[in-house]
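User: Could you check the structure of this?
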Amino acid sequence: MKECPKCELCYADEVNFCPQDQTQTRLSLPGTQLLANRYWIEKRLGRGAM
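Assistant: Sure, the predicted structure tokens are below.
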């Protein structure tokens, strides 16, 4: 899965540029946007802790 570093939206591995802001996407998490064949990942909610 790839992610836009600017707007943090998630895309399939084949997407090289964010359609929203034309920023180059980067690999973020292994796997696809569909998690457990039930949940669709659209955007990162948070990062790190404390």
